[in-house]
Design a protein that fits this description.
disordered N terminus; single chain; 9 helices; alpha/beta; two-stranded antiparallel sheet; globular
Length: about 220
């Protein structure tokens, strides 16, 4: 499988490296992913997960983005989120309810980012809904090749165990940094904080996955 490079005018055959397998998969090849029907595509911020998913979609795969699923889950759990966090947010000078009654995800994120206890509380509220919505997507597309595009799928073992393989997208630090600045227009310090928060992402997947689930690298230059 050949993916166009994320840099215009160049092409790259990703390095597909199978580093853990419980079955007889043999040596990795360009057709490694064709053996599976449900995979997780993951990786650190700005590594190129969405791009890889878009290329697989051109080959017939269907992709569900768990960031977007989380947004939907937040709105579906709106009342519980407001009950749990509104008072604390207001005490910090943050409004987590927009004038149209939707949740202000940016301010909610500011409240939760530096408080692990509050973040865990939010996850306990929305993760069951994320699991429900994702399983509905899988059921509605039975018989098709499906990608779960997610950074922290290891936090939902119920979904992770459904995946027949984990595809970890990697890119050099500087490349990721430049992409993040260009794409998200965030302050450098904020990007670096997000990078730091994800520094152990690969090890978390290694610890969370079953021994039988292969872990595949796609390296973007």
């Amino acid at each position: 499988m050949v993916f166009p490079s994320l840099r215009s005018g160049r092409y790259v055959r990703p390095s597909l490296t199978l580093i853990a397998a419980g079955g007889n998969f043999g040596a990795p090849s360009a057709n490694t992913l064709e053996a599976f029907s449900l995979i997780c595509v993951t990786g650190q911020m700005a590594a190129g997960k969405n791009y890889i998913c878009s290329q697989l979609e051109k080959k017939g795969w269907l992709s569900t983005d768990l960031d977007l699923t989380a947004h939907k889950a937040i709105e579906l759990c709106r009342e519980e989120i407001l009950s749990a966090f509104k008072d604390q947010a207001e005490a910090c000078g943050l409004a987590i309810e927009n004038p149209d009654s939707s949740i202000n995800r940016r301010n909610l994120g500011r409240l939760l980012f530096k408080n692990p206890a509050l973040l865990a509380r939010q996850e306990s509220i929305i993760y069951p809904k994320i699991i429900e919505l994702t399983k509905e997507f899988i059921a509605q597309n039975k018989g098709k090749k499906i990608i779960i595009n997610a950074t922290v799928l290891y936090k939902t073992p119920e979904l992770l165990k459904l995946c027949q393989a984990i595809v970890f997208v990697k890119a050099p630090f500087v490349t990721r940094l430049l992409r993040a600045r260009r794409r998200d227009h965030l302050p450098l310090l904020q990007i670096l904080r997000r990078f730091f928060a994800q520094k152990d992402l690969l090890s978390r997947y290694k610890a969370a996955k079953s021994e039988e689930t292969p872990l595949i690298f796609i390296k973007n230059r």
